[in-house]
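Hi W., the heme C complex you wanted:
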Amino acid sequence: MRIKTFPLILLLSAAGGAADKDTCFECHTVMEGMSQVFQDDVHYHNQQSCASCHGGDSKEEDQNLSMSAGRGFKVRVTRAGVPDYCGRCHSDAAFMHKYNPRQRVDQVSLYRSSVHAVALAANSPHAPQCVDCHGIHTIRAVDDPVSPANPAHVVEMCAKCHAGTAEAFKKSPHGKVFAANGMSGCTTCHAGHATQPATSAMLSGAKASCSGCHAAGSAGARTAAELARLMSGLEAAAREANGSEAQLKTVRDNLAKARVAVHAVTVAAVKSPVDAGMAAAKQ
Ligand code: HEC
Ligand code: HEC
Ligand code: HEC
Ligand code: HEC
Ligand code: HEC
Ligand code: HEC
Ligand code: HEC
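Structure:
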């Protein structure tokens, strides 16, 4: 017993964020070490411990009482319930600004407007919600270099589900330049929370993301214009095609390939799936 409790005491006295008595943290340290990783979580550093999220009584030693509904312990949250679970604090400006006066409180509302939230509402098992991107019990501030949301790691975060797109991006002229300048790879164009459906409208015209960095007439802008022409052509052909199921499938598959290839930002990478798709559409 001595061997087990001694390091625990050291660990608790070293932990700046904890309230004086935190039976949840203590018992879960001994039990499965969850508190060990949680010590590095941004919540623990801001006086939010286990009971802040899970409820229950963190002054009570008896686990049956500590984790009882009577003391406010909450049942497990479903995947679809997570955004509001986090939003209880993160959408509450008065609460959040006590800890960080400049913190934004619009993450849940932005997320609600996203293509990811639409997929979550449709019960897609792959739709990301807060903890799929930020983790659980290992959540870090964005400016922490090991946070998955740090600009240096966002490409890996998105690559968990969009692997082919991330590969194309990493090999593109943007891959190295964005990383070297501390620009976040994917969210620079797609936003972290309010991710919208992607179309060729992002390449040219009023909504284009390219024109924010590439002045009219530059090499980047000329490539963007050519990509827009190729992509909008195939988008229209896919909408209008009315042939056999096999033909439609070939058109759609090539459109999907071309949309991934856009991330290479070269005409050559996009032209071959677009040509194949256009040829199938004309059959
Ligand atoms: C004296 C030990 C003890 C204390 C105190 C304690 N727990 Fe637990 N907790 C456990 C055990 C044992 C389990 C069951 C573990 C398992 O099934 O893997 C558990 C399970 C949990 C679970 C998972 C529940 C589930 O449905 O899977 C959560 C969340 C949790 N505890 C949070 C807390 C919080 C918050 C507090 C403080 C309010 C707390 N615990 C206090 C021992 C404790
Ligand atoms: C910022 C909010 C937050 C804090 C703080 C937090 N948790 Fe959790 N915890 C979650 C979420 C979200 C889940 C996953 C959904 C669920 O099980 O309800 C979870 C899941 C768990 C589980 C089930 C794990 C599993 O693998 O199935 C346990 C046990 C648990 N937490 C214990 C703790 C303990 C102990 C602490 C403090 C050391 C703690 N939590 C702090 C949000 C939090
Ligand atoms: C698809 C991945 C993803 C999802 C889902 C996600 N986040 Fe984020 N989050 C990020 C990224 C990336 C950043 C870093 C800023 C950026 O690049 O936009 C971030 C930043 C944050 C920040 C720091 C402040 C800010 O707004 O930049 C908070 C707080 C946060 N997220 C909370 C949440 C909550 C709460 C949810 C659920 C409603 C959520 N996030 C869902 C990826 C995600
Ligand atoms: C009990 C209140 C509470 C809950 C619930 C909560 N948080 Fe937090 N969160 C905070 C506080 C307080 C901070 C620290 C202040 C800050 O950094 O803005 C914080 C900080 C963060 C940060 C770091 C923001 C930054 O500065 O870069 C992220 C990311 C984050 N939380 C995500 C989540 C996610 C995901 C959930 C749901 C699983 C969640 N939080 C649930 C209170 C909460
Ligand atoms: C856990 C898996 C997962 C993660 C992580 C993830 N996504 Fe997604 N993403 C999805 C799913 C599921 C869809 C909806 C696909 C659909 O409707 O066909 C989607 C859709 C999208 C779309 C719209 C695609 C379209 O066809 O219009 C974009 C853009 C996008 N995600 C960008 C991102 C970015 C940027 C990140 C990282 C910040 C990210 N995703 C992280 C699963 C994920
Ligand atoms: C320079 C801006 C830019 C960057 C950076 C960027 N995208 Fe895109 N993304 C686009 C454009 C433009 C489209 C739409 C192409 C079309 O449909 O014509 C798109 C389409 C998508 C799609 C739908 C097609 C597909 O690839 O499945 C997803 C998902 C996506 N992006 C995710 C990501 C991820 C993940 C990253 C980071 C690895 C990323 N994007 C980086 C501009 C960008
Ligand atoms: C956040 C700024 C940013 C955005 C948005 C952006 N780019 Fe770039 N792009 C760069 C930078 C920086 C370089 C490297 C330029 C250099 O080294 O001179 C680059 C390079 C390129 C190049 C290689 C040719 C050149 O100019 O060096 C092409 C092509 C390109 N971008 C196309 C695009 C397209 C298409 C989009 C929209 C989908 C886009 N870019 C969006 C910043 C951006």
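Residues 155, 158, 162, 165-166, 169, 174, 185-186, 188-190, 198-200, 202-203, 209, 231, 259-260, 262-263 surround heme C (ligand 6) (CB under 6 Å).

W.
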